[in-house]
TrEMBL record:
Protein name listed in UniProt: Lipoprotein nlpD/lppB homolog
Domain LysM span(s) in chain numbering: 53-97
GO cellular component, one term: cell outer membrane
A single MF term (Gene Ontology): metalloendopeptidase activity
Keywords, sorted A to Z: Lipoprotein
Entry's transmembrane regions: none
A Pfam family per the record: LysM
InterPro entries: Cell_wall_metabolism_enzyme, Dup_hybrid_motif, LysM, LysM_dom_sf, M23ase_b-sheet_dom
Coiled-coil zones: none
This protein's record includes keyword Lipoprotein: yes
SUPFAM superfamilies to which the protein is assigned, alphabetical: Duplicated hybrid motif
Length: 263
């Protein structure tokens, strides 16, 4: 038989049932019946902060989006990490977010003299070659003739945006057009604060960005023409229908009003 015993303690009753105490709505088991919850050792998540010395590539990242977000630009990150065109990166890849400095010269051992060491020859460009490269770059830049992505009033200028583009008022669903011809290098929602974002690469120096869209109409890798509809206007964080627009030069934001035609 079970032994039942009621014991009054202040404002609650204790029921002793075969060695099990029920007190104030709680069940207390004998030490022999208490289950020990095993501790689970979980690995620490990899560092993904964009301002860390290293960045671990996440799903959906591209070198262009990482360069855009960090402000370094894809060309600089490619140089720092030895990444060559078409700038492919892999999930989990660890990228240097700093200049590692010049590489040590390659040492070559001639087969006829194993004991001697010589430096690998370094290709040098003469002044005429340098001038031709500079002039070619200038020609490429001169080919860009920017147009406004949408027609609207400037809600926030370059200074007011913290030197990161401008906000242009619009209508929800209004057509967003490419300001110049180029290749879409990012199309998605992976950059916090930019919503539905498109980044178009126009040449090795300039890119344009179109943020907070309600709809994206082009995909990564697609080539777009100047004036082509690429998205539709969405809302800013304030709830107002508008487009956030940026122009990046070598990865750094520049004032779009210095490039867009004067109305």
């Amino acid at each position: 038989m079970f032994l039942f015993k009621l014991v009054a303690r202040r404002d609650c009753w204790v029921l002793m049932l075969a060695g099990v105490a029920v007190s104030c709505g709680q069940v207390v088991l004998p030490d022999s019946e208490v289950a020990t919850i095993p501790s689970i050792s979980r690995p620490e998540p990899a560092k993904t902060a964009i301002d860390s010395a290293y960045y671990v590539v996440q799903p959906g990242d591209t070198l262009y989006s990482i360069g855009f977000r960090s402000g370094h630009g894809y060309q600089v990150l490619a140089a720092w990490n030895g990444i060559k065109p078409p700038y492919k990166i892999l999930v989990g890849q660890r990228l240097k977010m700093f200049d590692p400095g010049p590489e040590k010269p390659t040492i070559v051992k001639p087969s006829n003299d194993p004991g001697s060491l010589v430096r690998a020859p370094v290709e040098k460009r003469n002044s005429s070659q340098k001038k031709s490269i500079v002039s070619n770059d200038k020609k490429k830049l001169l080919k860009l003739h920017w147009q406004w992505p949408i027609t609207g009033i400037i809600l926030k200028n370059f200074s007011q945006s913290g030197r990161k583009g401008i906000d242009i008022s619009g209508r929800l669903g209004q057509s967003v057009k490419a300001t110049e011809a180029g290749k879409v290098v990012y199309s998605g929602t992976g950059l916090i604060g930019y919503g539905n974002l498109l980044i178009v690469k126009h040449n090795e120096t300039y890119m344009s960005a179109y943020a907070n869209n309600s709809l994206l109409l082009v995909e990564e890798g697609e080539y777009v023409e100047k004036g082509q509809k690429i998205a539709e206007v969405g809302k800013l964080a304030s709830g107002q229908a508008a487009l956030h627009f940026e122009i990046r030069k070598n990865g750094n934001p520049v004032n779009p009003l210095e490039y867009l035609p004067k109305n």
